[in-house]
Amino acid sequence: MYKAITISQGSGGWGGPLTIMPTDICNKIVSVTGGGIHPVAAKIAEMTGCEAIDGFTKSVPDDQILVAVVDCGGTARCGVYPKKKIFTVNLTPVGKVGPLAQYITENLYVSAVTESCLRYAGEGAILTSKEGLVAAGTGPRTAHSEPKTKAQARAEIAAMNVNKKRNIITRLGIGVGGVVNKFYQAGRETIDMVVKTILPFMAFVSMIIGIIKVSGIGNLIANTISPLASTLPGMLVISVVCSLPFISPVLGPGAVIAQVVGTLLGVEFGLGHIPAQYALPALFAINGQVGCDFVPVGLSLGEADPETIEMGVPAVLYSRLITGPLAVIIAYFFSFGMY
Amino acid sequence: MELLAGLANGFMELFKAGAETFAGWVAGIIPLIVVLMTAVSAVIKLIGEERVQSLAQKATKNIITRYTILPILSVLFLGNPMCYSFGRFVEEKHKPAFYDATVSFLHPVTGLFPHANGGELFVYMGIAAGITKLGLPLGDLAVRYFLVGIIIIFIRGIVTEKIYTSMKAKAK
């Protein structure tokens, strides 16, 4: 017996509320959180009568996923499922951000969800439509649709003019217009990226760095991590730790940890505590876990079969145990003669 | 009263160092990134994803190009996270290896082409900031990071392909 439930946003969250009801086909709750099925996913499954599935060990075809539960910090996963028009529950308080922000809409996505945000939908409650509100559109969406209508208008005019031969000036004008438009769009996307992801990251890390510098934790790091990062064996240790199959998926999300560690090491490089030529192997040592959190999602974006995903996840994780330290060694030899 | 004022000063000191770092980054990193990202992504838009697809298709056949050319094209033209969608061109048994190669290129690419992964620049940028502080040029580091990246994604592709094949054989 399936039941309809309503999922509303938690404190600091965004999107929703989603009122959802499983069907005979669409009745799986996929937990793409790492470390087993998250309690929120389990609770949703229990309330609706669906089956909860760990997205890391088992894969589910898109049309059977009722809800995807993710713990994305705002880079990729939070946008991937809305892009596929799958209801997405994010456990972290993240709004409409990341490279796929345009797909994150209030009728597909809800964030900062905890178990207390779930309740049974009342009798006759209206189910959230995946399509309905999209047409109504929010700010960025209308911005995107504007150039499209212009393009449509242009296409219509082009169709009308099809029999008339265009003179060279008209063709040149249209060509230049197209190029300028692409440059403008590139600029808009870049500024969007700077404001939505780069600047917030700078704010967060510079605050941490400031506190570390003033509070004296900096000296602690200089005395422990710097010696470790300034020898080849030390860096191998770092890369092995980062590549351990049970640690790597946890370190991965949004590359936040790699970025913070990179920035902290950068400070040590700047102070001369670590020799400059070690920059190259260090870049690989701190990043042995890259993408280990994202294997099932990345594979499904590549249209891999569920069986491939099931076995592909451990294959990638085990492979890193070999290639993680190997990357450091290769980078170490390639750093000779630099600086 | 004096004690309170002293506390307040100490409190503000805690954040002044952070503010300096922030101002340095915004003034030193953002202008170049903005112009570079705009230029490169405009060029990529002009070339267009469609035109790369046939090349991508050809690159899947051969084990060397499958884990070098194909991931590079997908990362440069589609960026994070849509680059994995080029996985649809490769055979089912090669998909995990292709994923591993592609994801491992997402940071080596940022030294030269930050547009491809603008949200995760600081893996490279953080360390590069320290090198800049020493007064050393970054070109060498960026180019070597890119080239070593290519070698490593190739090795990752092969190793993961082998592990996946043997796991699959065992499962049967």
What is the count of distinct domains of chain B? 2
- What is the arithmetic mean of pLDDT of chain B? 88
Taking all Cα atoms into account, the compactness measure Rg of chain A is 24 Å
Q: Strand-and-helix sequence of chain B, N→C?
A: HHHHHHHH
General shape of chain B:
elongated
Give the termini distance of chain B in whole angstroms.
77 Å
Count of helices of chain A? Answer: 12
- The rounded distance between the terminal residues' Cα atoms of chain A is 68 Å
Strand tally of chain A, please?
8
Judging from the principal axes of the Cα atoms, what is the shape of chain A? globular
* Largest pleated sheet of chain A: 5 strands, parallel
Quaternary structure type: heterodimer
Determine the fraction of residues in helical runs of chain A and give it as a percent range. Answer: 40-55%
- Secondary-structure content class of chain A: alpha/beta
Low-confidence stretches of chain B: none
Strands of the biggest beta sheet of chain A: in what spatial order? 4-3-5-6-7
Uncertain runs of chain A are: 132-148
- Using only C-alpha atoms, the radius of gyration of chain B works out to 21 Å
Write a brief caption for the model.
The complex is a heterodimer of chains A (339) and B (172). Chain A has 339 residues and is an alpha/beta fold. Chain A is built from twelve helices and eight strands.
